[in-house]
Structure formats: C-alpha cells, structure tokens
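Teaching assistant's notes for section 4

Start the section by putting this record on the projector. Ask students to predict, before seeing the second block, whether P-loop containing nucleoside triphosphate hydrolase protein will look compact or extended. Collect guesses on the board.
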Amino acid sequence: MAGIIPIKLLKLIYPIKEPDFTRDRPLQVLALGLGRTGTESLALALDELGYGEVYHGWKTAALPGCYVQWARLGNAKYGKHSKNPALLNRAEFDRVIGHCGAVTDLPTAAFGPEMLRAYPDAKVILNRRRDVDAWYESQKKTIAKLFTDWRSIVPGLFETELFWTWQCVRFVVIRMAGDDFEWNGKEMYAEHYVQLEAECRKQGREWLDWTVQDGWEPLCKFLDKPVPTHPFPAGNKVGDFEARLASLHAKQFQRALRNIAIAVLLVLVAVAAAWHRVAGR
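Reveal the predicted structure now:
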C-alpha cells in the first residue's frame, strides 16, 4: 500500500509509535552482506567483540515501529512512483540505528551504497556465501516467502504491527528483487556485491570479504581485535526460521484473528439490520 497511499495517511489508519534515535555512539562496522549469509552468527560475533548493540533483522521485531521508517526508506529507494534519494541520508538512518555500533543483515543491507556514503569511517565487511545456489535455496525457503500469500497478507490488514512488518518486507525484500525473487534472485545477489565493491573502490575504502566458514581469525585481524578461543557462534538455521517467525508474531496474529472476527460480526449485524429494515417496509 505504501507507495500508492502516502505513509502519513497509512499511519492514521495504522497508528504506531516510531523510534527516533539520534546517534549516541560511533557506527564502527557495516556488515552489508545479504540475509542468509551468516548474518546472525556475525552479529553475535560482533557483539562478543565489543561493538555494543548490533543491528540485525530479527531485532527489528523488538521495536516494531521501526518498520515504518524502513518502509519509508525502502519506498524512497525502490518505490516505482515515489523515489526520493534525498531521504537516504545519515540522519534518517540514525532514526532506527543511532543506538547501534554495528549492523548486519536486512534491512540495512538493502541500503548498502547509501550506508557506505553515510558512514565513511565504518569498517566494511562483505559477508557472503560462496555457493550462490545454496544461498538462493536458503533465501527462497525463508525471507523470500514472507508476506507472499493471503494467509499472511490478510491478517496484516487487521493488525497494526503486522501491517508495518508487511510494508517493510514489501519494500526492503520484495522490491529489492524486482518483485520476483525466483526469477531475479541470483542476479540480485551478484549485483548487490558488485555495487558495494564499486562504491568501496570509488571511496578508496578497504573491505573484508568474509564467509562464516572463515571464522574468527580474518574477522578479528581486520577489526584489530583479539581472537577468541571458543568456537564461532552459530545462529538462524533454515529449519528454525519458520518456528522462530511464528513465535515472534504469535500475539500479532492472535490480535489479527480477533479483529477479523469482530469485523465479520459487525458486517453480519449491519446486513441483518438492513434486511430487517427492508423486510419491515
């Protein structure tokens, strides 16, 4: 709906309090690889290395109002009729990540070139999977499935947090893949890293090319941190994704079903009242 109906109007229909952070610490690390490239494992590692709050896609659910800003930014970059590159600036990013010392995963990765320009002093990690086919299958079974059928979209029309989650996914995930992940996914993957490498070269900026299998040593060397002695953290396996997502949004779906039932009841009452008026004439 965002992009067709202005977000200001949608917020009147689906009111939610947005976070409005200002930067309270340096943003030291931009890990700009796409989702399903070890982003949560990397987030856990960066947290262990002392970067404080590390922004990751799962953490957006803790502040659901941030989905409004990500939808706004996604609309500014990927909207078909309402692009606004001027909105993609440091102040606007800081509204949702100003409390963070590092970022990984979507939605931040969807704004990679813009983030590189907004935070020129941050160290850059391009986390990826060497096997693009494996990444594609993992993404298709998880992130690319979000809000693509009526069972998830309809409840999103009846519950505010689900609605804004849907709008964020629509503009930061679906539009990023040209509205067709199955057809465009692998091309999107390649183009994502080409753009980031080009922007880094343009800025004369070093980056770390990294995979989960590389583990602690190259990461710590690049970040000038001591290497931990324990194994590299692991998180967010494909098999856990759906159960974790269902648990995360269980209360929102319950509210949505309640609201749907109320709406249906009100419609039935209105129809019955109208029938009685007609029958009584």
